[in-house]
Amino acid sequence: CYPWQELLSLGRRSRYGILKPTTQVTVERLEAMLYTAPSPPVDLMIRTSGEKRLSDFLLWQSENAIIHFTSVLWPDFSLWDFAKVIFEYQSVCDL
């Protein structure tokens, strides 16, 4: 699924009766209509391949997340790489 599809779907749902024309659009209503609405907030996002961008992926949902960029490619991302990211995350969050 492309990031723009979620926004297009949101617009269609609001246009075809999910939101009435008199309904006030709020952050809470928008978040309730996202594909990730039933999921908890994103705490940690890992971006592999050395790229330092998110490409519009989960931008809204990851607003308070810690983003970790690594040069390891996804097929080579191992349990040890994941453990290293978790330890760094714990040191940042003081867990």
Structure write-up:
There is one protein chain. This protein has 95 residues and is mostly helical. It has helices spanning 3-15, 27-32, 79-93; strands spanning 44-47, 66-69. Strands 1-2 form a two-stranded parallel ribbon. 0% of the residues are buried. The model has no long low-confidence stretch (mean pLDDT 80).
Brief account:
It is built from three helices and two strands; from the N terminus they run H-H-E-E-H. The chain has 95 residues and is mainly α.
Large-scale geometry: elongated
- Main-sheet strand order equals 1-2
Number of helices: 3
Report the biggest beta sheet as strand number plus sense, adding barrel if it closes: 2 strands, parallel
Distance between the termini: 34 Å
Global Rg: 17 Å
Search tags:
single chain, 95 residues, mainly alpha, two-stranded parallel sheet, 3 helices, elongated
